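Exercise: predict the fold of this chain.
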Amino acid sequence: MLKELWEYKLDLLFYGIRISDKCYASLKKNNKGKVTNEDYITTKGLFIVLNNSVHVNSMINTNSQYSIDIEESNYILKYNEKKICSVNIIQPPDFALNSITLSNGKFITHLVNIHGDRIRIQPIKGCANRCRFCDLNKLKYQLTPLKDLEEAFVYAKENVGFSHVLISGGSPLNTQDDFDYLSNVYKYFGEKYGTYYPIDVMFTPRGYNINDISDESYEKYLKQLKEWNISGLSINLELYNDEKRKKYIPQKDNIGKENYFRFIKLAVSIFGKYNVRSCIIIGLEEIEDSLKAVEELSKLGCMPVLSPYIPIDKEIPMPKPEFMKEILIRSKEITDKYEIELGPLCDSCKHNTINFK
């Protein structure tokens, strides 16, 4: 093997993967003849596992020199015709491929999605923010009734199965009602299912009152989340460079970078070192800026998550494998210094991140 498996992962994230005709014929298809389910920008590809250890979400690219073929009923990753390793293919569940709906006609995939061993609950359709690396805001903004979320959740639990839960999706409008709605979702699922599954929530710094950003307000809300059986938090800084933050994440930039760090520090003190993580988008700012984010987060005991930028237009290309490799190796040196891990801890959930697995 010319490279380590994690180096092939970086290649597959960048170059994508081609599926041989024989391999394609063996896979399940949706009603459009596709083998994937395009539910979110970072999960639109084919979910594969290299040698039962390295998880990758690779976009399908018919021009890629990397391909998956079948030999003796086994899937094999190849570079041109050179065999690299065995591959497992994890396709979306049947409810996603077959566009199954709830009793009221809503598509289950508009409410929950399963990636690997994790289910993502999406309380908000669309997004109030206008981040320039995400396409969620193209959907019409809408809050989903709790009963619909639970019906979709229970269907997935009974028909597919999963090991842990993430409540994520779009950001709320800056109104107290919409913030309270999300709190009710966290409370409901945490209290009802939090003793059966680890439940993480992904959100921006906030207290009970959207206008109160004091330490006391932040701390009170974080402690309440823990009382509701929420087990982990994803508080995504995304970018460190101030100019890039204004350009690419203007609404999140308005919260203030220092408020992110203040909130994350409190979160770590309440939830513990390995229960708080923060995503950094790799490729939209210079390496040194991203490394500053890694250092600041690591100092606080927060796990940095390196997420490569996935282009949604032609303005900026995806970072090249060499770029991703440098930032990964240098980030590992930083996290080792502060005795923290690069997140996420779940190997399956590393599929769309820059990591060694």
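Check your answer against the key: The CA atoms of residues 245 and 253 lie 6 Å apart.
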